[in-house]
Design goal:
Blueprint lengths: L1 H17 L26 E6 L5 E5 L4 E3 L5 H14 L7 E3 L2 H4 L16 E3 H10 L3 H12 L2 H14 L22 E3 H14 L3 H5 L3 E4 L4 E4 L11 E9 L3 E9 H4 L6 E9 L2 H18 E7 L6 E4 L7 E6 L3 E6 L5 E6 L12 E9 L2 E8 L9 H22 L1
Antiparallel strand pairs: 1-2, 1-11, 3-6, 4-5, 7-8, 9-10, 10-11, 12-15, 13-14, 14-18, 16-17, 17-18
Helix pairs in contact: 1-10, 2-5, 4-5, 5-6
Length: about 400
Protein backbone atom coordinates (compact mmCIF):
# COMPACT_ATOMS: atom_id res chain seq x y z
CA UNK A 1 0.00 0.00 0.00
CA UNK A 2 2.88 2.37 0.86
CA UNK A 3 4.48 1.84 -2.57
CA UNK A 4 1.16 2.70 -4.20
CA UNK A 5 1.02 6.00 -2.28
CA UNK A 6 4.58 6.89 -3.29
CA UNK A 7 3.78 6.11 -6.93
CA UNK A 8 0.72 8.40 -6.81
CA UNK A 9 2.75 11.25 -5.34
CA UNK A 10 5.39 10.93 -8.04
CA UNK A 11 2.82 10.65 -10.80
CA UNK A 12 1.24 13.93 -9.69
CA UNK A 13 4.67 15.58 -9.54
CA UNK A 14 5.57 14.28 -13.02
CA UNK A 15 2.34 15.55 -14.54
CA UNK A 16 2.81 18.92 -12.86
CA UNK A 17 6.40 19.31 -14.06
CA UNK A 18 5.79 18.45 -17.68
CA UNK A 19 2.27 19.76 -18.24
CA UNK A 20 1.46 23.29 -19.44
CA UNK A 21 0.11 25.53 -16.68
CA UNK A 22 -2.56 27.56 -18.46
CA UNK A 23 -3.76 29.37 -15.36
CA UNK A 24 -0.42 31.19 -15.00
CA UNK A 25 -1.09 33.28 -18.13
CA UNK A 26 1.75 35.47 -19.37
CA UNK A 27 3.37 36.00 -15.99
CA UNK A 28 4.24 32.30 -15.60
CA UNK A 29 3.84 32.77 -11.84
CA UNK A 30 0.93 31.39 -9.88
CA UNK A 31 -1.25 33.45 -7.61
CA UNK A 32 -3.22 32.13 -4.65
CA UNK A 33 -6.16 30.24 -6.10
CA UNK A 34 -4.30 28.96 -9.17
CA UNK A 35 -4.03 25.22 -9.63
CA UNK A 36 -0.50 24.57 -8.33
CA UNK A 37 -1.46 21.76 -5.96
CA UNK A 38 -3.33 18.95 -7.70
CA UNK A 39 -5.06 17.87 -4.47
CA UNK A 40 -5.86 21.46 -3.45
CA UNK A 41 -9.45 20.71 -2.47
CA UNK A 42 -8.25 18.05 -0.04
CA UNK A 43 -5.84 20.30 1.89
CA UNK A 44 -6.90 23.15 4.20
CA UNK A 45 -3.74 25.23 4.17
CA UNK A 46 -0.20 25.27 2.80
CA UNK A 47 2.72 27.47 1.89
CA UNK A 48 6.27 27.21 0.63
CA UNK A 49 8.91 29.88 1.13
CA UNK A 50 12.58 30.73 1.24
CA UNK A 51 14.28 29.79 4.49
CA UNK A 52 16.91 32.55 4.51
CA UNK A 53 14.90 35.57 3.32
CA UNK A 54 11.44 34.59 4.55
CA UNK A 55 9.91 35.27 1.11
CA UNK A 56 6.80 33.17 0.54
CA UNK A 57 6.54 31.76 -2.97
CA UNK A 58 3.02 30.36 -2.82
CA UNK A 59 0.32 29.89 -0.20
CA UNK A 60 -3.25 28.96 0.58
CA UNK A 61 -5.04 30.04 3.77
CA UNK A 62 -1.62 30.60 5.35
CA UNK A 63 -2.95 33.12 7.89
CA UNK A 64 -5.79 30.91 9.12
CA UNK A 65 -5.38 28.95 12.35
CA UNK A 66 -5.73 25.16 12.39
CA UNK A 67 -4.81 22.32 14.79
CA UNK A 68 -1.14 21.29 14.34
CA UNK A 69 -0.94 17.98 16.22
CA UNK A 70 2.67 16.75 16.51
CA UNK A 71 4.13 19.73 14.66
CA UNK A 72 3.88 21.21 18.17
CA UNK A 73 7.11 19.32 18.88
CA UNK A 74 9.05 21.95 16.93
CA UNK A 75 8.42 24.35 19.82
CA UNK A 76 9.23 21.57 22.30
CA UNK A 77 12.57 21.04 20.55
CA UNK A 78 13.31 24.78 20.65
CA UNK A 79 12.64 25.11 24.40
CA UNK A 80 14.66 21.96 25.10
CA UNK A 81 17.67 23.30 23.24
CA UNK A 82 17.37 26.64 25.03
CA UNK A 83 17.25 24.81 28.37
CA UNK A 84 20.48 23.05 27.40
CA UNK A 85 22.08 26.37 26.43
CA UNK A 86 21.09 27.93 29.75
CA UNK A 87 22.64 25.04 31.69
CA UNK A 88 19.32 23.93 33.17
CA UNK A 89 19.82 20.48 31.64
CA UNK A 90 22.49 18.78 29.52
CA UNK A 91 22.43 16.18 26.78
CA UNK A 92 23.58 13.59 29.32
CA UNK A 93 21.03 14.50 32.01
CA UNK A 94 19.07 11.40 33.02
CA UNK A 95 15.27 11.23 33.16
CA UNK A 96 13.24 8.33 34.56
CA UNK A 97 10.27 7.12 32.59
CA UNK A 98 6.90 7.87 34.20
CA UNK A 99 3.49 6.24 33.98
CA UNK A 100 2.18 9.42 32.32
CA UNK A 101 4.80 9.09 29.57
CA UNK A 102 4.29 5.33 29.24
CA UNK A 103 0.56 5.92 28.76
CA UNK A 104 1.46 7.78 25.55
CA UNK A 105 3.02 4.69 23.96
CA UNK A 106 -0.19 2.95 22.93
CA UNK A 107 -0.96 2.06 19.30
CA UNK A 108 -2.94 5.27 18.83
CA UNK A 109 0.18 7.37 19.56
CA UNK A 110 3.53 7.88 17.87
CA UNK A 111 6.12 7.06 20.51
CA UNK A 112 9.66 5.95 21.29
CA UNK A 113 8.40 3.34 23.75
CA UNK A 114 9.17 4.90 27.14
CA UNK A 115 8.88 2.50 30.07
CA UNK A 116 8.14 3.56 33.62
CA UNK A 117 11.27 3.50 35.80
CA UNK A 118 13.75 3.14 32.93
CA UNK A 119 16.34 5.90 32.51
CA UNK A 120 16.77 7.98 29.35
CA UNK A 121 19.20 10.77 28.51
CA UNK A 122 18.01 14.12 27.18
CA UNK A 123 19.87 13.27 23.96
CA UNK A 124 17.81 10.08 23.59
CA UNK A 125 14.58 11.96 24.23
CA UNK A 126 15.40 14.69 21.66
CA UNK A 127 16.20 11.97 19.13
CA UNK A 128 12.89 10.23 19.81
CA UNK A 129 11.05 13.56 19.70
CA UNK A 130 12.18 14.39 16.15
CA UNK A 131 12.92 11.03 14.50
CA UNK A 132 9.81 9.10 15.54
CA UNK A 133 7.66 12.00 16.81
CA UNK A 134 7.57 10.53 20.31
CA UNK A 135 4.68 11.88 22.35
CA UNK A 136 6.19 10.09 25.35
CA UNK A 137 9.50 11.88 24.77
CA UNK A 138 7.75 15.27 24.61
CA UNK A 139 6.01 14.56 27.90
CA UNK A 140 9.22 13.57 29.71
CA UNK A 141 11.17 16.56 28.34
CA UNK A 142 8.42 18.95 29.44
CA UNK A 143 8.29 17.52 32.96
CA UNK A 144 12.09 17.57 33.30
CA UNK A 145 12.44 21.18 32.12
CA UNK A 146 9.41 22.81 33.74
CA UNK A 147 8.25 20.42 36.47
CA UNK A 148 5.01 19.57 34.68
CA UNK A 149 3.61 19.58 31.17
CA UNK A 150 1.12 22.32 32.10
CA UNK A 151 3.96 24.62 33.16
CA UNK A 152 5.89 23.74 30.03
CA UNK A 153 2.87 24.67 27.89
CA UNK A 154 2.89 28.10 29.53
CA UNK A 155 6.53 28.49 28.50
CA UNK A 156 5.64 27.41 24.96
CA UNK A 157 2.99 30.14 24.77
CA UNK A 158 5.38 32.68 26.25
CA UNK A 159 7.98 31.81 23.60
CA UNK A 160 5.36 32.08 20.86
CA UNK A 161 4.51 35.60 22.03
CA UNK A 162 8.20 36.48 22.24
CA UNK A 163 8.63 35.43 18.60
CA UNK A 164 5.43 37.26 17.59
CA UNK A 165 3.72 34.03 16.55
CA UNK A 166 0.30 35.43 17.34
CA UNK A 167 -1.77 32.51 16.04
CA UNK A 168 -0.06 29.85 18.15
CA UNK A 169 -1.69 28.34 21.21
CA UNK A 170 -0.24 25.41 23.16
CA UNK A 171 -1.83 23.13 25.77
CA UNK A 172 0.88 20.46 25.92
CA UNK A 173 4.30 19.51 24.55
CA UNK A 174 3.20 16.76 22.18
CA UNK A 175 0.13 18.00 20.31
CA UNK A 176 -2.29 15.28 21.43
CA UNK A 177 -5.80 16.39 22.38
CA UNK A 178 -6.22 17.28 26.05
CA UNK A 179 -8.87 15.70 28.27
CA UNK A 180 -10.94 18.84 27.65
CA UNK A 181 -10.45 18.27 23.91
CA UNK A 182 -8.22 21.35 23.52
CA UNK A 183 -5.76 21.24 20.64
CA UNK A 184 -2.50 23.03 19.96
CA UNK A 185 -2.94 25.33 16.97
CA UNK A 186 -1.14 27.67 14.59
CA UNK A 187 -1.29 29.24 11.17
CA UNK A 188 0.97 27.93 8.41
CA UNK A 189 2.77 31.29 8.34
CA UNK A 190 3.64 31.13 12.01
CA UNK A 191 4.87 27.55 11.67
CA UNK A 192 7.01 28.73 8.75
CA UNK A 193 8.51 31.52 10.90
CA UNK A 194 9.06 29.17 13.85
CA UNK A 195 10.88 26.71 11.58
CA UNK A 196 13.04 29.50 10.14
CA UNK A 197 13.97 30.57 13.67
CA UNK A 198 14.88 27.03 14.73
CA UNK A 199 16.97 26.34 11.63
CA UNK A 200 18.90 29.58 12.12
CA UNK A 201 19.51 29.09 15.84
CA UNK A 202 19.79 25.30 15.98
CA UNK A 203 20.58 23.93 12.49
CA UNK A 204 21.59 20.63 14.10
CA UNK A 205 17.88 19.78 14.22
CA UNK A 206 18.50 18.50 10.69
CA UNK A 207 20.97 15.95 12.06
CA UNK A 208 18.06 14.35 13.92
CA UNK A 209 15.52 14.67 11.10
CA UNK A 210 18.00 13.16 8.62
CA UNK A 211 18.26 9.95 10.63
CA UNK A 212 16.60 6.94 9.04
CA UNK A 213 15.41 5.57 12.35
CA UNK A 214 16.40 4.53 15.88
CA UNK A 215 18.06 1.21 16.73
CA UNK A 216 18.81 0.75 20.42
CA UNK A 217 19.52 -2.88 21.25
CA UNK A 218 19.92 -2.21 24.99
CA UNK A 219 16.41 -0.79 25.30
CA UNK A 220 15.04 -2.97 22.49
CA UNK A 221 13.90 0.05 20.47
CA UNK A 222 13.83 -0.37 16.69
CA UNK A 223 11.76 2.25 14.90
CA UNK A 224 11.85 3.94 11.51
CA UNK A 225 11.71 7.69 10.98
CA UNK A 226 8.21 9.13 10.57
CA UNK A 227 9.45 11.94 8.28
CA UNK A 228 8.32 11.41 4.65
CA UNK A 229 9.82 12.33 1.25
CA UNK A 230 13.48 12.09 2.32
CA UNK A 231 14.05 9.08 0.10
CA UNK A 232 11.69 10.22 -2.64
CA UNK A 233 12.83 13.82 -3.27
CA UNK A 234 16.50 14.76 -3.39
CA UNK A 235 17.38 17.48 -0.89
CA UNK A 236 14.56 16.85 1.61
CA UNK A 237 16.15 16.63 5.05
CA UNK A 238 13.30 17.23 7.52
CA UNK A 239 11.38 18.02 9.47
CA UNK A 240 8.10 17.19 11.28
CA UNK A 241 4.79 15.45 10.77
CA UNK A 242 1.53 15.81 12.68
CA UNK A 243 -1.67 13.79 12.61
CA UNK A 244 -4.90 13.73 14.60
CA UNK A 245 -8.52 13.35 13.53
CA UNK A 246 -9.06 17.09 13.99
CA UNK A 247 -5.77 18.28 12.47
CA UNK A 248 -5.78 15.85 9.57
CA UNK A 249 -2.40 15.04 8.05
CA UNK A 250 0.15 17.82 8.52
CA UNK A 251 3.75 18.24 7.45
CA UNK A 252 6.64 20.66 7.78
CA UNK A 253 9.29 19.92 5.15
CA UNK A 254 12.78 21.37 4.84
CA UNK A 255 14.67 21.01 1.57
CA UNK A 256 18.02 22.02 0.12
CA UNK A 257 16.81 23.11 -3.33
CA UNK A 258 20.37 23.00 -4.68
CA UNK A 259 20.42 19.23 -4.19
CA UNK A 260 17.06 18.96 -5.92
CA UNK A 261 18.21 21.11 -8.85
CA UNK A 262 21.75 22.62 -9.04
CA UNK A 263 20.46 25.95 -10.37
CA UNK A 264 18.56 26.55 -7.13
CA UNK A 265 21.11 27.71 -4.55
CA UNK A 266 18.74 28.16 -1.62
CA UNK A 267 16.81 26.30 1.05
CA UNK A 268 13.02 26.16 1.23
CA UNK A 269 10.46 25.35 3.91
CA UNK A 270 7.06 23.89 3.07
CA UNK A 271 4.02 23.61 5.33
CA UNK A 272 0.94 21.48 4.62
CA UNK A 273 -2.01 21.44 7.06
CA UNK A 274 -5.31 19.60 7.19
CA UNK A 275 -4.76 17.10 4.37
CA UNK A 276 -7.26 14.26 4.08
CA UNK A 277 -4.58 11.61 4.53
CA UNK A 278 -0.82 10.99 4.30
CA UNK A 279 -0.69 10.37 0.51
CA UNK A 280 -2.60 13.62 -0.08
CA UNK A 281 -0.26 15.48 2.30
CA UNK A 282 2.84 14.15 0.52
CA UNK A 283 1.40 14.84 -2.93
CA UNK A 284 0.65 18.46 -1.97
CA UNK A 285 4.19 19.00 -0.66
CA UNK A 286 5.67 17.37 -3.77
CA UNK A 287 3.69 19.73 -6.03
CA UNK A 288 4.85 22.77 -4.05
CA UNK A 289 8.51 21.74 -4.32
CA UNK A 290 8.30 21.12 -8.08
CA UNK A 291 6.50 24.42 -8.60
CA UNK A 292 9.18 26.42 -6.77
CA UNK A 293 11.99 24.64 -8.58
CA UNK A 294 10.39 25.38 -11.94
CA UNK A 295 9.65 29.08 -11.46
CA UNK A 296 12.09 30.45 -8.87
CA UNK A 297 15.85 30.59 -9.42
CA UNK A 298 18.68 32.01 -7.37
CA UNK A 299 20.74 34.65 -9.13
CA UNK A 300 23.90 36.17 -7.68
CA UNK A 301 24.00 39.83 -8.72
CA UNK A 302 27.13 40.92 -6.86
CA UNK A 303 29.99 38.46 -6.38
CA UNK A 304 33.10 39.39 -4.38
CA UNK A 305 35.17 37.17 -6.69
CA UNK A 306 34.00 38.82 -9.94
CA UNK A 307 34.56 42.51 -10.84
CA UNK A 308 31.35 44.48 -11.36
CA UNK A 309 33.15 46.98 -13.59
CA UNK A 310 36.57 48.39 -14.47
CA UNK A 311 37.72 51.97 -14.95
CA UNK A 312 40.59 53.45 -16.92
CA UNK A 313 43.02 55.33 -14.64
CA UNK A 314 46.07 56.88 -16.33
CA UNK A 315 47.73 57.62 -13.03
CA UNK A 316 48.22 53.96 -12.00
CA UNK A 317 50.89 51.65 -13.40
CA UNK A 318 48.49 49.15 -15.04
CA UNK A 319 46.33 51.88 -16.55
CA UNK A 320 43.03 50.55 -15.22
CA UNK A 321 41.44 49.29 -12.00
CA UNK A 322 38.91 46.48 -11.60
CA UNK A 323 36.06 47.28 -9.21
CA UNK A 324 34.92 44.42 -6.97
CA UNK A 325 31.81 44.42 -4.75
CA UNK A 326 32.70 44.14 -1.07
CA UNK A 327 29.84 41.71 -0.39
CA UNK A 328 27.80 39.04 -2.14
CA UNK A 329 24.23 39.91 -3.06
CA UNK A 330 21.76 37.46 -4.55
CA UNK A 331 18.02 37.07 -4.94
CA UNK A 332 15.51 34.33 -5.50
CA UNK A 333 14.00 35.71 -8.68
CA UNK A 334 10.89 34.79 -10.59
CA UNK A 335 11.03 33.80 -14.21
CA UNK A 336 11.13 36.84 -16.60
CA UNK A 337 12.06 39.33 -13.88
CA UNK A 338 15.47 40.84 -13.12
CA UNK A 339 16.91 43.09 -10.39
CA UNK A 340 17.90 46.69 -11.18
CA UNK A 341 21.63 47.47 -10.99
CA UNK A 342 23.29 50.89 -11.11
CA UNK A 343 27.04 51.55 -10.78
CA UNK A 344 28.47 54.88 -9.71
CA UNK A 345 32.27 55.32 -9.96
CA UNK A 346 34.06 57.95 -7.89
CA UNK A 347 35.36 60.97 -9.79
CA UNK A 348 39.06 61.89 -9.94
CA UNK A 349 40.46 58.50 -8.90
CA UNK A 350 44.25 58.85 -8.75
CA UNK A 351 47.14 56.53 -8.05
CA UNK A 352 48.56 55.06 -6.00
CA UNK A 353 45.63 52.81 -5.01
CA UNK A 354 45.65 50.48 -2.03
CA UNK A 355 43.88 47.15 -1.71
CA UNK A 356 40.42 47.75 -0.26
CA UNK A 357 40.18 51.39 -1.33
CA UNK A 358 36.57 52.43 -1.90
CA UNK A 359 36.30 53.51 -5.55
CA UNK A 360 32.55 53.60 -6.12
CA UNK A 361 29.09 52.27 -5.28
CA UNK A 362 26.80 49.59 -6.69
CA UNK A 363 23.06 50.01 -6.14
CA UNK A 364 20.98 46.84 -6.42
CA UNK A 365 17.22 46.58 -5.99
CA UNK A 366 14.60 43.90 -6.51
CA UNK A 367 10.99 44.21 -5.43
CA UNK A 368 10.98 45.76 -1.95
CA UNK A 369 14.65 45.01 -1.20
CA UNK A 370 17.54 47.33 -2.00
CA UNK A 371 21.27 47.30 -1.27
CA UNK A 372 24.07 49.85 -1.50
CA UNK A 373 27.49 48.21 -1.59
CA UNK A 374 31.03 49.50 -1.98
CA UNK A 375 33.18 48.82 -5.04
CA UNK A 376 36.80 48.28 -4.05
CA UNK A 377 40.20 47.44 -5.48
CA UNK A 378 41.39 43.89 -4.87
CA UNK A 379 45.09 44.79 -4.98
CA UNK A 380 47.61 47.59 -4.50
CA UNK A 381 48.37 49.64 -7.62
CA UNK A 382 51.50 51.74 -7.88
CA UNK A 383 51.48 55.25 -9.23
CA UNK A 384 52.46 55.43 -12.90
CA UNK A 385 55.65 57.27 -13.86
CA UNK A 386 55.40 60.83 -15.20
CA UNK A 387 56.49 59.62 -18.65
CA UNK A 388 53.75 56.92 -18.73
CA UNK A 389 51.08 59.37 -17.62
CA UNK A 390 52.10 61.95 -20.29
CA UNK A 391 52.18 59.22 -22.94
CA UNK A 392 48.67 58.01 -22.02
CA UNK A 393 47.29 61.54 -21.94
CA UNK A 394 48.66 62.27 -25.44
CA UNK A 395 47.28 58.92 -26.68
CA UNK A 396 43.84 59.70 -25.25
CA UNK A 397 43.86 63.13 -26.88
CA UNK A 398 44.80 61.65 -30.27
CA UNK A 399 42.08 58.99 -30.00
CA UNK A 400 39.51 61.64 -29.10
CA UNK A 401 40.57 63.77 -32.10
CA UNK A 402 40.26 60.80 -34.47
CA UNK A 403 36.78 59.99 -33.13
CA UNK A 404 35.68 63.59 -33.68
CA UNK A 405 36.93 63.54 -37.29
CA UNK A 406 35.16 60.22 -37.98
CA UNK A 407 31.96 61.53 -36.40
CA UNK A 408 31.92 64.42 -38.90
Amino acid sequence: MKKKYKFCAFLLAFLFLFSPLKSFADESIAKEGDNVVGVDANVKSYLIGNQESGDIFYQKNADKTYPIASMSKLMTFLLTREAIDSGKISYESKVKGTKEAEDLTGPEYSSLGIKKGEEYTIKELITGLIVVSGNDCANLLASKISGSEDEFAKEMNQKARELNLQSQKYYNASGVNTEDDNQNSSSAKDLFELTRYILKKYPDVLEYSNMGGIDDNKKNIHKKSTIPLKNEIKGVDGLKTGTTNEAGSCLTTTIDMGKFDPKNEYRAIGIVMGADDHPTRDAAMTDLIYYVSRYFNYKKIADKKIPSDSVKINSVKEGYVELYPDQNIGFIIKEKSMPNVKIQINKDIKGPIKKGDNLGKEYISYKDKSYEINLVSKKDQEKASNFTRIKRTISDACNFLVECIIAR
